[in-house]
Amino acid sequence: MEVKRPEIFDLFRIYRLLFITGIGIFAVLIYHFGMIEITDLSVNAVILLFAAACLGLFLRSLRRRLFFGKEISLHQSMSFEVVMQYLHFMSPLLPEKTFESEFLERETRIKSEKISLWLHSRVLGVYLICSLAGLLVSILYSSPVFSVFFAVSAAAALLTAVLRKHIGVLSYLNSVVFGVFVWGLEGIAVTSVFNHFVSPADSWAAYLILTAVIEFSPVPFAVGLAELPLLIFESPAVFWLCALFHFFRIVPVLALSAVYITRYKFKISDFFNPRIIEFLHRYPEEDVPDYEEVDGAPDVSIVIPAYNEEQRLPSFMKDVLNYIKANQSRLSIEVLIVDDGSSDNTVKVVQEFECKNPNVRLLRQVRNQGKGAAVRRGMLEANGRYGLYADADGATPISELDKFIPFIEKSDKIVIGSRNISAGDVQQEREGLRSVMGAAFYKMVNFLAVPGIKDTQCGFKMYRRDIIHKIFTRSLENGWAFDVELLYLAQLMGHSIVEVPVNWHEVEGSKISPVKDALKMLAAVFRIRSRQGGFLSDS
Known about the structure:
two-stranded parallel sheet, 8% strand, 2 domains
């Protein structure tokens, strides 16, 4: 009996109840304070509040970047910050610390010890900064009892950092100092608007209280609950200004999450399921059982998709057969040529090779279905321990297979050729419009779907047999975007992908239109994200 759906439903029901409660509190506050005409609130003031919210998001991302140094880029820091703030706003009851630990370990090569150091210092830092904020508010309003309470709270946070040796006091202090800087700089921008309506003391107190409550609110988006303490001011101006800034803090996170949530393979429903942390923790390299060896199975299956390739295929096939002959003592290789409904003499050309070479096999598609469909069929019917698919034009020499074998025999599940990684012994010839369009496309795909992959479209990729069935049976793209989908699925499942620089030269006769196909593939990226995203889709 399926038990996961009730888990999702129960947690979502809790969030819905909390959110409705927050909306109710907010409605009561509106009734209490009433509507107000803020005639002095100019367009510039609204822009400044929005800019302050965006600045806060950027600075919090920068703090993460400075802590981890060169191990992550500023763009990665921003994307990670957006995901974590999205989680905080959308699903505040999920254990953020555990989620972030598993998320960072999955998406980076940072050691778990340093991630743990970051998490401990950040959590304690939030408590310390909030205690300092409470202390400042108490001092502003001459409240000795609360001043003592928050001073003791701040001292306890510092003492905890000193006693926990694994936290690293210096790293902790650096994180706290930068955190104070973030709150201070954001606060200056916010209170410069507030000061037109209330005293500087009320401005800072309102900002600090609002920001602290947002950090700890169990209500989705902290709606209503963040504004509730503002009752102490009895000021409609304070209420509405804080509500506006609160709204502006949420907007950029939601806007950027539209890109980053699916980039990292999440669906919204994932954030309402407590099992998401368990699924982030899966590492298929350890979980996939050893596959059964087939008697007489070759070491490598080379899959070549072919559509109207009577001119270019023979030359490449001669190179492939020469390579097989030269390496027959160390590698057994089969070649599967998948004819994708060609209308020329491609089938006849392949049949001639098939008759003369027992390790060549022809597979025929009834009609033209696309390169993705041809590759999928070939890889699923391959018998080799490793499956390599290569373009029929021979743009990447078959001898580059030698570079892949050490990686895939060691532990890596997927090895892909890259034309965007330089190496001293590699020549990559690409010029003109194709080069420009290719570079732009790779950056866009990297940004939207497969972070960390520099070249998704090189037609020279190898997969271990034990994961071919898992990935290729889920692939649905038949066109040129199938590479992106396969890599997207591989990252979703947590498989390691290694990029290896390969020799590559452009061959005349390409069927790709740089502009037209780039637009089609861009549309396919969004289709892939929508269709394949979600860690819990099959759970």
